[in-house]
Amino acid sequence: MKIPILFEDEDLLVINKPPGIVVNRAQSVKEETIEDWAGKKLTSQVERSGIVHRIDKETSGCLLIAKTPHVFFELQRQFKEREIHKTYLAIVHGSLVPEEGEIRAPVGRLPWNRERFGIVPGGREAMTKYKVRKSDDNYSFVELYPQTGRTHQIRVHLKYINHPIVGDYLYAGRKTSRADRQVVGRVMLHAWKISFTHPSTKKLVTVEAPIPDDMMKVA
């Protein structure tokens, strides 16, 4: 497995996760995961092979991996305290108006389908800010700044405002996603940038993952 490394020092690394690779091990996952790859690369024993957070299988982009237990728990703390900032890029259906805004709606598992999430009463507070980079009648190319870290938050929020992500087999609707898949091979979502305080140097580190070719073709 070849994984592009965007940043690395003795404490941590940031990879550019390719789409189509699962991050964490699970009984249902038979193929090699990022966690497997990281476990082979790291010399010290770290919980979950240093995987501090996760992104979906079909999402590409920045993923933070700790090399030591101390760094792992410090980065987890930064996530919990919302000190780590992430920027995503997505291609969504339709012309998104207004060009800048925020989406506030509680996200939780759907009672009738535990594999999916949605806007549900009693869900956890969730907010996503966004800015449109480019749009036409068919698609919008959007920057997204999640202020909370709920599972599938960006995908659910964009569905909620009737601008689902292109290729989203879970939330764009069966007919729409089937048509999308004739053009794209995955969910058009990319973890573009991540900013965090380095646990050792205490300096702000910002890492950017190049925009994938498959997104550039559609955008």
Automatic annotation (TrEMBL):
Domain Pseudouridine synthase RsuA/RluA-like: residue ranges: 11-159
Stored Pfam families: PseudoU_synth_2
Role, per record: Responsible for synthesis of pseudouridine from uracil.
NCBIfam families associated with the record: rluA_subfam
UniProtKB keywords: Isomerase
Protein name according to UniProt: Pseudouridine synthase
Keyword Nucleus attached: no
Uppermost EC category: isomerase
Lineage: Bacteria, Candidatus Gottesmaniibacteriota
Domain of life, source organism: Bacteria
Catalytic activity as recorded in UniProt: a uridine in RNA = a pseudouridine in RNA
UniProt GO MF annotations: catalytic activity, acting on RNA; pseudouridine synthase activity; RNA binding
Species, as recorded: Candidatus Gottesmanbacteria bacterium RIFCSPLOWO2_01_FULL_43_11b
A biological process from GO: enzyme-directed rRNA pseudouridine synthesis
Matching PANTHER family: MITOCHONDRIAL RNA PSEUDOURIDINE SYNTHASE, RIBOSOMAL LARGE SUBUNIT PSEUDOURIDINE SYNTHASE D
UniProt-annotated catalytic positions: 56
Its EC number(s): 5.4.99.-
